[in-house]
Amino acid sequence: MIAKFIVKVLYVTCAVVIGILALIVLTQVVSRFFNYSLPGTEELSRLFIVWMTFLGSSIAVYERGHLAVNFFVKKSNDKIRPYLYLIVNIILGLFFLILTVYGFIFSYQSLDFTSSTLQLPMTIFYLAIPVSSLLSTYFIIQNFWLPQDESEAV
Predict the structure, then answer these.
(1) pLDDT tens-digit map of 123-133
(2) Distance from C-alpha of 27 to C-alpha of 44, rounded to nearest angstrom
(3) Partner of 32 at 20 to 30 A CA spacing, among 6, 18, 81, 98?
(4) Residue 154, pLDDT score
(5) What pTM was estimated for this model as a whole?
(6) 148: Cβ–Cβ under 8 A, 6 or more apart, which residues?
(7) Helices (H), 34-62
(8) What are the backbone angles phi and psi of residue 14, rounded to the nearest 5°?
């Protein structure tokens, strides 16, 4: 229930970010047509791409959409498949847990640094890593209790 709400928020957030990103890039293209470059548009579009990428990866974890992992696990024997899913989820969980911890540390350490044009704290860029990793860790833990057949139907 909570996971589905979070995923809906992530979908809406990614859709809004794509819309804003399209407007920013369109504005930049039109302004360059008139030999004027709007300062900060490239930096802002980079910020939105970073956040959209990491939030999208959280959605992929929720939907178990990592193709390389699922491809090899589904090719395995039916008897060992649940154990392989368990091993893969443990490895992914540990990876995202490490990314969460060190992402927050790195984000905190970058509080004093600002972006070149907009003078935004670089923490805004770097927070995408631990936030996405925290969501991915939550989805992996949630997937432990959700049977494999149910999660693929979601």
Answers:
(1) 999 999 999 99
(2) 12
(3) 18
(4) 37
(5) 0.83
(6) 82, 85
(7) 41-62
(8) -65, -40
**Lowest mean per-residue pLDDT among 31-35, 69-73, 80-84, 119-123:** 69-73
Instruction: For residue 34, give the amino acid letter.
Output: F
Here the tokens at position 153 are: 């139907």
Question: Which helix (H) or strand (E) segment is 151 a member of?
Answer: helix 148-153
The Cα 5–Cα 147 span in angstroms is 19
Q: Please, what is the angle between helix 2-33 and helix 128-145, to 10°? A: 150
How far, in Å, CA of 106 to CA of 23, rounded? 31
Decide if 58 contacts 3 (C-beta within 8 A).
no
What 3-state DSSP class applies to 65?
Answer: coil
Amino acid (one-letter) located at 20:
I
In the structure encoding, which two tokens stand for residue 152, read together? 């693929």
- Which amino acid would we find at residue 120? L
The span from the CA of 27 to the CA of 7, in Å, is: 30
Residue 147 reports pLDDT greater than 60: no
